[in-house]
Amino acid sequence: MAKVNFSINGVTRNFDGDGDMPLLWHLREEAGLKGTKFGCGIGQCGACTVHVDGEAARSCSVPMSTVDGASITTIEGLADGDKLHPVQEAWIEEDVPQCGYCQAGQIMATTAFLKEVPNPTDEDINNGIDNLCRCGTYFRIRKAIKLAAKKIQET
Amino acid sequence: MANLSRRKFLESSAGIGVLTIAIAQTPYILAQETPDNTGLLTPCLHFDQAGAITLYVPSPEMGQGMSTTGALMIAEELDLNLDQVSVKLMPYVEKRVGMEFYQGSGGSGSTMRTWNQVRSTAAFARDLFIEAASRQWQEAALNLFIEDGHVVNKANGDRIPFANLVQSARNFMGGSLIPENSSPKPNSAHKRIGKNQPIVHGKEIVTGAPLFGIDVDIPNMLHAVIKRCPHLRGHVKTYDDSAATAMPGVKQIVPIARIPEATEGWRRVAAGIAVVADTYWQAKTAADKLNIEWDGSVSKDDDTTLLKSKAIESVNSADMRTTIEAGNLEAAFNDAKSTSEATYYHPHWAHTCMEPHNCVADVKPDGAEIWTGHQFPGTAISGAAEVTGLPASKIKSNFYRMGTGLGRKNEQDYVKEACLLSKAVGAPIKVTWSREDEIEQDYVNYMGAYKIRAAVNDNGELSAWHMRAAGDAFLQRPTVGFPARLIDTYKGEAERIPNHITRGAWRGPTQNVTAWVVQSFLNEVATDAGLDPLAFLTKLYSQKQVLKDLNWPNGDHDFRRYIAVLEKAAELANYHTPLPSGWGRGIAVNHTFVSVCAHVVDVEMIGDSDYKVHKVTSAIDCGYVVNPLGVKAQVESGIIDGLCAAKYGNWRLERGVPVSNNFDTYTKMRMDECPDDIEIHLLETGDTEPRGTGEVALPPVIPALTNAIFAASGKRVRTLPISENL
Fold first, then answer.
1. I need a surface site. Which of B196, B429, B512, B646 has the fewest CB within 10 A?
2. Predicted-complex ipTM score
3. How far apart are CA B37 and CA B12, in angstroms?
């Protein structure tokens, strides 16, 4: 059992329960944030990607016992009110999503990635983004990442 | 919004000022003032009391873009801006006489099957609004037109929004105006159809809105995690649930019997033990503490290695059933300038749907309700009816966007499980599958072996074709497919390798593997005869113009379309331009159900046993294009899915137990293997109706890839997956 305090999208939360429970299930079932998706449960597919203290993390593999004091951002907290994040805008402009199930994870992975590599080449993207998409939207994701990088640099 | 139950939807749609426009063949049906709109009316257009418009699209959405395509068809007839409306999946209605909406997603058919239905409905709505305005303004209908959701008076420019006409339109629905008299616009008048339309739910997706079945919560819902028998034919022998029962939140442990119980029968629902708890995590951790002994001894012969050797042995030596035959085969081989012979094999493929299967069910003695994502709503409902013992009319249903379907989400198992458990527990239950079960309990693509031989005559033409096929589907279909009948001398033989593996539709069923076998072998035949593969193919497809397909959906194959896409793809890919050493280029074409697609793949070898796909150039003929941006998305999707299945797809069983069960043991392509470039051309052939797209690009990309690998390395891939056979 674990007792931890942390924040999700800027809102302070407390958790008192099974410390082994992955953050994913706290987000989906206790915080009511359904945007973060269950995909594989073993950190392989990235559908559950969120930010923990600004870094991309696969929330199916982050135990609640480890998030004490952490600042967590989910897809629901990425936009600034009605103003979408440039990565979200780029995803819409490049018409990336098909089924859409993995895209929250793709977007969260990309926003963290672009902080590390603000102006990525194809090779950087190939090495830096490995979330699974079963619709095969990779080609448009690659274009959207570059568009997002441009948008971020222009702001 | 995703949690809006059908009941709530009905409440909200029953208010004053609400108009539902039905497709219907008789005024009688239109005249029905249905207080709850159940069944009798199929709404595709809805106004709330504030005038906000919702378009209801009949085809379930699984990423193939039908909510956008369907909305575009409605919006075209009504001149509505899609930015100003909401788009939702139409609630399921039973088919009734005179009311036929195709409510399914399969066979690449949603667009063409709803094309006339949806547009006719919307055209009828348009005529209702014009009639209403005509009465209100006392102006002849022919002086009125519609624009941006308004009726406009040509003479004076007066405009009135549709929403303000709803009430009066309701008053004469079923009177003088009948849908048969309403015609959709001619294609030449299309303003929105044919232009790039981004998906209508893009903003919801990028902001994480709860759109999917897995996002549904309903009051008092409990969660179930099931430990399912991994054996195809197994039962629960014994189980100890004492540790699981003691876990926090656990409400009940429920054994689930295999359906059917007889292990000879194909598994429809796995035997298992379900843990029902307050939360998913509680159910999962408790389920992990179950101690179960399975009786799987009866399935040990269902083994990948064993089945492969049986299939190959069969094509080499078995006395098979002849499926098709014409001409003098041996004479053609004797007279040949060159002959070729090869054996091909492909293993089972799993679907790996991005969203693990899930369903919420609330079963009561007098009725049930389900919440899920499914490719065929009617199939899901009949599954629920079967296990609850209730008539289908007593099953309320709520269907959601699917995190891919790929053919797997037309099965009933996950719906049945939720219903069985809700019935047993007496509470609403949500069943969420693990990834492991999604792969282990799949309805996989069939495996098959093929022995093919072919002859080329002195004119450089294919002169004989002989295919023997054995697999765990009855492989008549590839053996009767082209090039049999396209040339005059051919023979097909097939045999089934019996086993207990659950097989199902996998994107582009039959075509997904047949295209590889046929187009790769034709490439071998051309190469063996010293001919350019593209010239060889265009010559082959010039032999006849049109032939009816002996396989589903039994439509015409117009070989001029084959040649057109081949030539276009070749032109765009600079097919005849030399490539650097270590690179290769491959081409292939396939007609999948209704449409034709060709690809050129450029690869570079990486060492001896790996490769990089640099570019895929595609040409597709899918008839009249509703949304070019969406068609291209589906072509890109088919390319990636095909490249991935070809390289890695290999669902394996060892002595009746699947040994691949998550993404660490069942590899999928990621960004780093996505081609550097994809170029897609949509052919305009003068068709006036759409054909289909969702599965069409996948089958030909696999032979284009293996043909390119041969050109680059001299290695002919005759066994999939490529990653294990190069």
1. B196
2. 0.99
3. 11
Average pLDDT over residues B55-66: 94
Tokens 């069960």 identify what position?
Answer: B661
Which residues from chain B sit within 8 angstroms of residue A20, using beta carbons?
Answer: 285
Contact B616, B598 (CB under 8 A): no
Q: Is there a contact between B202 and A141 if contact means CB atoms under 8 Å apart?
A: no
CB B24 within 8 Å of CB B120:
no
The answer to whether A98 contacts chain B (CB < 8 Å) is: yes
Q: What is the pLDDT of residues A110-136, one digit of tens each?
A: 999 999 999 999 999 999 999 999 999
Residue A91 sits at the chain B interface (C-beta within 8 Å) = yes
Question: Each residue of A9-33: b (16+ CB within 10 Å) or e?
Answer: beeeeebebbbebbbbbbbbbbbeb
Is the confidence at residue B32, as pLDDT, over 50?
no
pLDDT over 90 percentage in chain A: 99
| Bond preceding residue B483 cis, omega within 30 of 0 | yes
Indicate the SS3 state at residue B369.
strand
pLDDT tens, residue by residue, A42-56 = 999 999 999 999 999
B165-182 pLDDT, tens per residue?
887 777 666 555 566 678
A37·B403 Cβ contact <8 A: yes
Q: Hey, how many other C-beta atoms are within 10 angstroms of the C-beta on B342?
A: 17
Q: How far apart (Å, rounded) are the C-alpha atoms in residues B218 and B278? A: 13
Partner-chain contact A137 B406, CB within 8 Å: no
HEC letters along B52-71: CEEEEECCCCCCCCHHHHHH
Would the CB atoms of B674 and A37 count as touching at under 8 Å?
no
Cβ distance A134 to B281 less than 8 Å, yes or no, reads no
**A121 part of contact set with chain B, CB < 8 Å:** no
**Under 8 Å between Cβ of B492 and B324:** yes
- Burial code (b: 16+ CB inside 10 Å, e: under 16) for B89-122 equals bbbbbeeeeebebbbbbbbbbbbbbbbebbbbbb
Q: Which residues of A touch B356 (CB under 8 A)?
A: 38-39
Say if A35 is an interface residue toward chain B (CB within 8 Å).
Answer: yes
- Which tens digits make up the pLDDT trace of B540-563? 999 999 999 999 999 999 999 999
Q: Which residue from A10, A4, A99, A144 is spatially nearest to B204, judged by alpha carbons?
A: A99
Nearest to B627 by CA among B566, B694, B567: B694
Q: A117 at the B interface (CB within 8 A)?
A: no
Question: Whole-prediction pTM value?
Answer: 0.94
The side-by-side arrangement of strands in the sheet containing B448-456 is: B321-326, B490-496, B462-471, B448-456, B338-346
In 3D space, the residue among B35, B40, B73 whose CA is nearest the CA of residue B56 turns out to be B73
Cβ within 8 Å, pair A98-B211? no
Report the relative pairing of strands A71-73 and A55-58 from DSSP bridges: unpaired
Interface probe for B, chosen from A134, A140, A147 (most Cβ of B below 10 Å), is A134
Q: Do A136 and B406 touch (CB under 8 A)?
A: no
Query: Strand ranges (DSSP E) for B21-112?
Result: 45-47, 53-57, 86-89
Interface contact flag, A100 B208, Cβ < 8 Å: no
Closest partner residue to B671 (CB to CB) among A41, A74, A129 is A129
Residues of B in contact with A110 (CB under 8 A): none
- Rounded to a whole number of angstroms, the distance from the CA of B677 to the nearest CA of chain A is 8
pLDDT band at B466 (very low <50, low <70, confident <90, very high): very high
Q: Return the number of CB contacts < 8 Å for A and B.
A: 181
Contact A42 B663 (CB under 8 A): yes
How many C-beta atoms surround the C-beta of residue B188 within 10 A? 6
pLDDT per position as a tens digit, B368-401: 999 999 999 999 999 999 999 999 999 999 999 9
At residue B653's C-alpha, the angle toward residues B652 and B659, to 5°, is 70
